[in-house]
Specification:
7 strands, SH3 type barrels, 3 domains, about 45% helix, two-stranded antiparallel sheet, five-stranded antiparallel β-sheet, Arc Repressor Mutant, subunit A, alpha+beta, about 230 residues
Length: about 230
């Protein structure tokens, strides 16, 4: 591996981390010495790459906007194509269209030999039985991003109907159902709602308190405690 290749690989590793990563970890990933990592970090910083941190604390890539994007490897293309194919087959029309547009953008920047490989994928997504496509998914995704409360009329597995005001957190895509995870004002705890059992949905103009990241962290902490106590969601 040449020094230029090594520097680009180092940038790619830093791109993969949202939090500071130690020189020891970077050295292990690149099969080089920690001393070489230090020298390469300094070299990149001198070239204008915004890398923050120091020895012993770790390094974080703040911006690499002046660098050209790294080309995809064959395995990375396989992963992208497989993921976009899954989205096209298992989601609603809005996300299906987004997946198709994303694939077209990827095609546009690929060299001819990789574009040809992307057109002749050998990895396929299987569909198990009937997939339930619900009409509420775009509104739910929008409310998750904008922190809007949702009022919904919901029919549970016993066919009992109730009206809930919820704070949407996560939308889970399973093989045949979609699961909305949210804070329920009625129950005062996090609850899961099957989207195909939502009879009516109204996105409120009211926002729930706090930030989306804070609510997501509360939800993750809640489920971590349940897992530690041996509980498994159905």
């Amino acid at each position: 591996m040449t020094k230029t290749q090594r520097l680009m690989e180092l940038v790619q590793l830093l791109r993969c981390h949202r939090y500071p990563v130690t020189a020891q970890h970077l050295a292990e990933q690149l099969s080089i010495s920690v001393r070489t990592v230090y020298r390469d970090i300094i070299c990149l910083q001198q070239q204008g790459v915004e890398i923050e941190g120091s020895a012993g604390l770790g390094y974080l890539l703040k911006s690499d906007g002046h660098l050209p994007p790294l080309m995809f490897s064959r395995h990375e293309l396989d992963a992208l194509a497989l993921g976009l194919d899954w989205v096209s087959r298992h989601t609603d029309a809005e996300l299906k269209s987004a997946a198709q547009h994303a694939l077209a953008k990827i095609h546009a920047v690929l060299p001819e030999h990789l574009s040809h490989a992307l057109d002749h994928q050998s990895l396929l997504v299987a569909t198990r039985g009937e997939v339930l496509f619900e009409t509420h998914l775009p509104e739910i995704r929008q409310a998750i991003h904008t922190r809007n409360k949702i009022t919904l009329r919901y029919k549970d597995l016993k066919d009992a109907t109730s009206t809930r005001v919820i704070w949407p957190v996560v939308l889970g895509y399973f093989d045949q159902v979609r699961l909305l995870c949210a804070w329920c004002e009625l129950r005062q705890e996090f609850r899961n709602f099957r989207v195909d059992r939502i009879e009516e949905i109204v996105v409120s103009e009211e926002y729930y308190p706090g930030t989306r990241h804070q609510l997501l962290k509360r939800w993750k902490d809640y489920h971590q405690v349940r897992l530690e106590n041996g509980y498994r969601d159905p």
